[in-house]
Amino acid sequence: MIHAFAARPPRRALFILTVLTGSFLLFLVQPMVARMALPRLGGAPAVWNSAMLVYQALLLGGYAYAHAIGRLRPRTQAMVHLGLLAVAALWLPIGLLGVQPPPDAHPALWVPWLLGASIGPLFLAVSAQAPLIQRWFSEASDGADPYALYAASNLGSFGGLLAYPLLVEPFTPLREQSWLWSAGYVLLALLVLACATSLPQVARAERGPITSPAPARGTVARWIALAFVPSGLMLATSTYLTTDIVAGPLLWVLPLGLYLLSFTVAFAANRALAEILTRIAPITILLFGGVMIGGYNAQPLLNAGIALVLLFMTSVALHTAMYESRPEPDRLTGFYLAMSVGGALGGVFAGLLAPVLFDWTYEYPLLILAAGLMAPQLYLTEGIKAVWTRHRWLALAGIAVAVALLFVLRLHGPDRLFGENRPGLLFVVVAAVGLFAVGARVGYMLLLAAALMLFGGYRSLEMSLAGDVRTRSYFGVYTVQERSRSRELDHGTTVHGVQLTGSPERERTPTTYYAKGAGVGQAMLLAPRLYGPDARIGVVGLGTGTLACYARPGQRWRFYEIDPAIVRIARDTGQFTYLRRCLPDPAISLGDARLSLAREAPGNLDLLALDAFSSDAVPAHLLTREAFATYARVLDRRGLLLVHISNRYLDLEPVVAGAAKAGGWSASIFVYDPSRLDEAASGSAWIALSRDRGTLDALTGRAEGWRMLRAPRGFRPWTDDYHSILPLLKRPG
After folding, report:
1. Nearest Cα to 473, choosing from 106, 110, 228?
2. Are strands 587-590 and 556-561 parallel, antiparallel or unpaired?
């Protein structure tokens, strides 16, 4: 078919449009398919990291395919690629296979299998567009530089990522999203066909000698390393954001979007912005890297902004270094293949290996150190350059003395100036010394390593050496903090449970969000009166096991917990004794709670408490209309559902109100503000729901402060097919 067309001069706009369209579709599908997977795979942040690993592996496959067919004649390449697009179209409309994970499925294995089988051929075919179309452009234009098209490619990718949370997700159900993407795929195939008509019969290599030498192995290894670090940092930043706010596409796409935008800057034909950002990147890495390692949680939104700036600056610097060492266009697909290998390896390191190898996010400082080592550096002034050129060893000794002095001040200086919670002065000193060190690689790396240790690295090493203080799993990092009269479990920046210490009676006291005055505490105390001595009670989210101390003889309790590490902390290590003292042999269902509850018999519970925190986030798939239908099925008709909605960033009340209205529930909310004299209690917001109005009245009439929950006018309830966090964001302050 293609041979019927005569070769025509390249139409640059056509090639740019094709690259933009392919990249837009490629990165629109990533959050869309991950969003489709939420109800089936669960909402843990690690699910997104597993999805990213699948995408990177498929991207690597697409780039390898583009590199392999590059040996064919241009018109033959076009025929092969159009054939692949046609075969992949058998997977349209795009979506997940209709299979459910087995009860014992591990997400690290199940997620890649499901996504690969569902979208693998489509993703592979579309991912080959960027290198393949660029090479075709070079062939059709007799060797014109195609690298500017890669900047356009990443601009399209960035546009696709932004379009999903801002335009697609808030206004379009998943089924319509699938059909819209499928229509875009057909458009892409037509654009590829149009590009093919401009290809010559014979490759440039056959029309004249190739002057471009093959890259040395060291050069290829450097390309892989330069791609490895930004990819790993992107996944580490994604974990931080989705752990502390919400596991949803709006936050998933921010790190990935900035990562892609860095390619647009680094590969742009106009080099001004890339040069400016690359010049200041070493100082950014030095200062912002220290702030992130310090983990100062008083201002988590500021920390999130710093993490994103650090990721973007690092990515621009390293991708610019990659661009500066790019090969000639005839070696283009090999260059992109090496880049894809580095990206995939970075994803494997941060997403799979790090949670197994480390008990804390040590991959973050290691990647920051690697970024500092590889980022291009220039002396900030000619005077500083002269000092390092003429007195290198003396300048290096000065850096070493400054580092030693900083350690002495941090460890032995007055707390009001140099304490862990007052890093400002140390920050200023490190910044001042850093301005002098930038450009001198050895001195800079010495200062960077010292900054990472000073701002929190030494404290993390102490915790790692202390034994069971910290635990890491596929779902996050948990830290056990010893206080003077209590013990605390933290996940990210959120307290997951506190147990009072000093006596058996204190150890049995429900604390924090679960105190007797909180909404869930009132419901648990009322359960024997409502449901008799053999009440059936379920709790989604084990935490430290605090709620177990409401258990009474004869009651049947079951906890639903997704993370085996939490079960170990609450039951096996002896760090928390709620279960041992109050419910020694609890029934615990491991796995995603919604999936576990779906397998329960109808009417199997009288009371269900939903406390499924992922740090400060609630997995969105547990708050949809379909999820509440599952809760209604598993609860007795007179049953009570308690939903914990305390959250620093999102107002989840409209979500529960909308689900309650859609499902025929009566609902009331209780916001608990305990006395400052109560060391055990924390402020909390619990919503109680029941399909029996009398049951709800029996609870809400026991204490003042309960108010009826009403769905706000115009709010669209969350479903498995639709949800958006944009209307729920709380205003700062």
Report:
1. 106
2. parallel
CA angle centred on 312, ends 150 and 292, rounded to 5°:
155
CA distance 614 to 596: 17
The single-letter code of the amino acid at 580 is R
Can you give 199-220 as a three-state secondary structure string?
A: CCCCCHHHHCCCCCCCCCHHHH
Opening angle at CA 361, ends 359 and 364, nearest 5: 150
User: In angstroms, how far is the first alpha carbon of the chain from the final one?
Assistant: 63
b vs e for 479-511, b when ≥16 Cβ sit within 10 Å of the residue's Cβ?
bbeeeeebbbbbbbbbbbbbbbeeeeeebbbbb
Kindly tell me if the per-residue pLDDT of 1 is higher than 50. Answer: no
Distance CA(614)–CA(246), nearest Å, equals: 8
Neighbouring C-alpha atoms within 13 Å toward the C-beta of 527: 32
Helix, strand or coil, per DSSP, at residue 480: strand
CA-wise closest residue to 620 among 26, 21, 47: 47
Secondary-structure breakdown of the chain: helix, strand, coil percentages, each rounded to the nearest 5: 60, 10, 30
Q: How far is CA 241 from CA 45, 48, 353, in A?
A: 9, 12, 20
What is the per-residue pLDDT across 605-615, written as a single tens digit (0 to 9) for each? 999 999 976 55
pLDDT (tens digit per residue) in 508-530? 999 999 999 999 999 999 999 99
pLDDT at 251 exceeding the cut of 70: no
Do 375 and 285 contact (CB within 8 A), yes or no?
Answer: yes
**What is the sign, positive or negative, of the torsion defined by CA atoms of 92, 93, 99, 105?**
positive
Element (H, E) at 162: helix 147-163
Q: Rounded distance, CA 382 to CA 127, Å?
A: 45
CA–CA separation, 553 and 568 (whole Å): 24
H-only helix segments in 217-298? 217-244, 249-266, 272-294
Residue type, 524: M
Say what the pLDDT of residue 134 is: 85
Q: Could you tell me the two tokens for 399?
A: 């850096």
DSSP state of 173: -
Instruction: Categorize the per-residue pLDDT at 243 as very low, low, confident or very high, splitting at 50, 70 and 90.
Output: low
Sheet-wide strand order for 486-491: 470-473, 476-482, 486-491, 494-500
Query: Does residue 419 carry a pLDDT above 80?
Result: no
Would you say the pTM of this structure is higher than 0.90?
Answer: no
Alpha-carbon distance of 315 to 263, in angstroms, equals: 8
Whether cis (ω within 30° of 0) applies to the bond prior to 619 is no
- C-alpha 256/C-alpha 238 separation (Å) is 8
pLDDT at 703: 83
